[in-house]
Design goal:
This protein is an alpha/beta fold. It contains 6 helices and 10 strands; from the N terminus they run E-E-E-H-E-E-E-H-H-H-E-H-E-H-E-E. Helix 2 crosses helix 3, helix 2 runs parallel beside helix 4 and helix 4 runs parallel beside helix 5. It is globular. It starts with a strand and ends in a 7-residue tail after the last strand.
């Protein structure tokens, strides 16, 4: 479970105020809002990439408000993937596991699991520079899932894809949700994505967060 309690973030003239949010294990939350409304800022606060001005973030009851990104147990897929260009697909998938000092056998087994989950086996020994947009996003998703995070954060992961590839990636995300049970927090401005994927839907407007369809954000 992840909970935000009275979270405030200020950056220059921009402010998010008193953000309250609670997600249960396995929820797929989609956050909607106009460009520049603070969706990505909130996501980055969850991941530890931006500091809170005040408030708390709790993950399974543990206060992670001041924890470093790698200590939070949160996987992150930034917009357009941003893969390590000098590494192969296999090396991208195993990067976080090497940092956490998994054994070679454990890394090989986990990479194989991710390759099967995301249909990446034929690509494992390729570089990333020649991958299609959908392939790149599947690798970025696998890299974020590698260390089995409790929460997966996705920043407009489908925005740069054509319609057919977007539909394929929506199916991939549905499969990931069903097979892993990971709690997801997905930022987008696309209502079709929200309707297909979300179990909880929220909107940011005027610096505040509210739930859609009568839900309570806490």
């Amino acid at each position: 479970m992840i909970r935000l309690e009275r979270v405030c973030v200020r950056a220059g003239g921009f402010e998010l105020t008193d953000i309250e949010l609670a997600l249960e294990q396995g929820d797929y939350a989609v956050l909607l809002g106009r460009t520049g409304c603070g969706k990505t800022t909130l996501l980055e606060c969850l991941c530890g990439l931006k500091p809170l001005t005040s408030g708390r973030i709790l993950l399974d009851g543990r206060d992670i408000s001041d924890a470093r990104p790698g200590e939070r147990g949160i996987g992150y897929v930034p917009q357009e993937g941003v893969l390590f260009r000098t590494m192969s697909v296999r090396e991208n998938l195993s990067f976080a596991l090497e940092v956490q000092r998994w054994s070679a056998g454990e890394m090989d087994a986990r990479v194989a699991e991710l390759a099967d989950l995301l249909s990446l086996r034929p690509l494992l020994d390729r570089g990333v520079h020649g991958l299609s947009g959908g392939e790149r996003q599947r690798v970025a998703l696998g890299r974020a899932l590698a260390a089995r995070p409790s929460v997966l954060c996705l920043d407009e992961p489908l925005s740069a894809l054509d319609h057919q590839t977007r539909e394929e990636m929506i199916a991939v995300l549905e499969s990931v949700r069903e097979q892993t049970g990971v709690t997801a927090f997905h930022v987008t401005h696309n209502l079709a994505e929200a309707s297909r994927l979300a179990t909880r839907t929220f909107v940011i407007e005027g610096g505040t967060l509210s739930a859609i369809a009568g839900e309570s954000p806490g």
